Amino acid sequence: MDEWVDILDAEGNPTGQSLLKSEAHRLGLYHPTVHIWCYDKNGFVLLQQRGRNKSSFPLKWDVSVAGHIGTGETISLGAVREVQEEIGVKISAELLEKIAVFKTEHQHAKNFLDREFNHTFLYHLSRQTPLQKQESEVERLEWFPLERFKQWVKTKHSDLVPNLNQRYEKVISEIESRL
């Protein structure tokens, strides 16, 4: 789905310009996104298998919820909206725990340079919470033991979205510190 996003400079500051997400990707312009990692107190992490029709990393396992921040939307409200859209859960912005902002760049295709500032959060969620995946974005949702996820990261498992290990290691470390 194409949506309007705010354009950022290389340091993550707003430029005052907004474009459709597809244009930001085509032109390789920075824009804000959110990543929300849901975990439970028993050492499980919720992963989503990306939809088969996604333009980037289809059917790869990824963060619980990820999405673009809409033009004029705050980071925390965008995170709440994305969780509701992708996994069907209403969450409280006050319970989001921001752990990092990662500057990323992925050249997916000749005309698809994805440059983002990923605002990364943890969210404690019970595994008993009913989930409703967004059919157009998510193939599957599954709770994985954190140890299995750590092994995937360590071995650069081919089913996992390729990211710098430091990003995954930061998330794992932050979850472990809360268990």
Automatic annotation (TrEMBL):
This protein's UniProt keywords:
Hydrolase, Isomerase
Give the GO molecular function terms.
hydrolase activity; isomerase activity
Q: Where is the Nudix hydrolase domain?
A: 29-168
A Pfam family annotated for this chain is: NUDIX
Span of the signal peptide: none
* SUPFAM superfamilies for the chain: Nudix
Q: What is this protein called?
A: Isopentenyldiphosphate isomerase
